[in-house]
Amino acid sequence: MKKRILIVDDEESVLLVLKNSLIKLGDTYQVNTANSAFKALEQVQAQPFDLVITDYKMPEMDGLQLMEAIRMIQPQARLIMMTAYGTEKLEQKVSQLKAYRYLTKPLEINAFRQIVKEALTADDVAISRPGILVLSDARYRQVVNLLQELQVNVGSRCIILTDANGQMIAYSGEVSGLPLEQIASLLCGGMATLQAAGSALDGDEEAIHLSYREGKRDNLYVVNIGAQLLLILILEAKSYSSRLGSVWYYARQTAVTLRQTLGEADYATAPQIFTGQGVEALEDELDKLFEDSSPTTRNGDAEIVAPAPSSVLAKTTVRQTISPPRQPESSASSGKPISFQEAIMRGLIAPDLYPSKEAGK
């Protein structure tokens, strides 16, 4: 479904430039224009808009009055104020109307387009909700493709997407040997502080933040995606490494796209996943796993398919190689299938991690 945008300005040349700049973003946007506040109101009364961008100083009715009227007609619409005559008092009034942004002219077109994209994806963002992110196989591949594209654009050693608890969701590049959980956990605290400081400064809780550290061997960049996810970039500290501005440009673009992509994903709490039907489904899958023929053995280790980490319960599997505990001779060691409950009894599955069906009722 196309996002509807209305641009309001009494200067036709400004309308033309801004409209053309947004049309270049693709056919996912429907861009309308109005050269007066009254004509804008006619359009707002006729159809819903996702975003209204208005100039402040216009004859008969100014942009602030227009925004107040739109708030009455379409309270869900996001609003952006543009002005070449900005004052602190005007900015405060715009903030009281809970406008998405307050922009001062002249506008930088690339920055303007980026702000519009962010405004239109903000309502779709589900990643600020607490809970466990649930990704389908197709959506997981989308995320990985975005990380791979970003890695190519900035020439990084690796790109990692983590949740607020420091658990890795997806990555691109070489991550072996890196203390990812420790790095992510420490960064989450720092970014949370930066987000809180920014919110206290201007009340903008949807802003994207960049934190940067230049090291002797590696340069570290981190960008937040909502309040729950982080995008971590590690670049080798070489003379030809990408500069800060270039990394920020591509990382910001990727963050906006990820907000939109992950905003359509589902979330679940731990009780929803590990009790009731969630446990039954998990037990069934594990029963099938242990009822399969003898697993492939490599150097004394059995290769099994384990469920994905709890941070991303995607419809995909993660292969892990484990060394099973030594067991006395039994039907299990002779290659006969065992059930889920038998696996628990033999210490292959932790009983407190996956409660029984009776406990889930």
Low-confidence stretches: 123-130, 266-279, 293-335, 356-361
Q: Main sheet, how many strands, which sense, barrel?
A: 5 strands, parallel
Count of individual beta strands: 15
Radius of gyration: 26 Å
How would you name the CATH homologous superfamily of the largest domain?
Dynein light chain 2a, cytoplasmic
Give the tally of structural domains: 3
Key features of this structure:
single chain, 361 residues, alpha/beta, Rossmann fold, Beta-Lactamase, 3 domains, five-stranded parallel beta sheet, five-stranded antiparallel beta sheet, 12 helices, elongated, disordered C terminus
Element layout with pairings:
Elements: E1 3-8, H1 12-23, E2 29-34, H2 37-46, E3 51-55, H3 63-73, E4 78-83, H4 88-96, E5 101-104, H5 109-122, E6 132-134, H6 137-154, E7 158-163, E8 168-173, H7 180-202, E9 210-214, E10 218-225, E11 229-236, H8 244-263, E12 266-268, H9 270-274, H10 277-291, E13 297-298, E14 301-306, E15 318-322, H11 340-345, H12 357-360
Parallel strand pairs: 1-2, 1-3, 3-4, 4-5
Antiparallel strand pairs: 6-12, 7-8, 7-11, 9-10, 10-11, 13-14, 14-15
Helix pairs in contact: 2-3, 5-8, 6-8
Describe the 3D structure.
By secondary structure, the protein is an alpha/beta fold. It folds into 3 domains: 3-122, Rossmann fold (3-Layer(aba) Sandwich); 132-266, Beta-Lactamase (2-Layer Sandwich); 270-360, no CATH class. Helix content is 41%, strand content 22%. The chain is built from 12 helices and 15 strands. It has a 5-stranded parallel sheet, sandwiched between helices. A 5-stranded antiparallel sheet has the order 8-7-11-10-9. The chain has a 3-stranded antiparallel sheet with strand order 13-14-15, with no helix packed on it. Helix 5 (109-122) packs parallel to helix 8. It starts with a strand and ends with a helix.
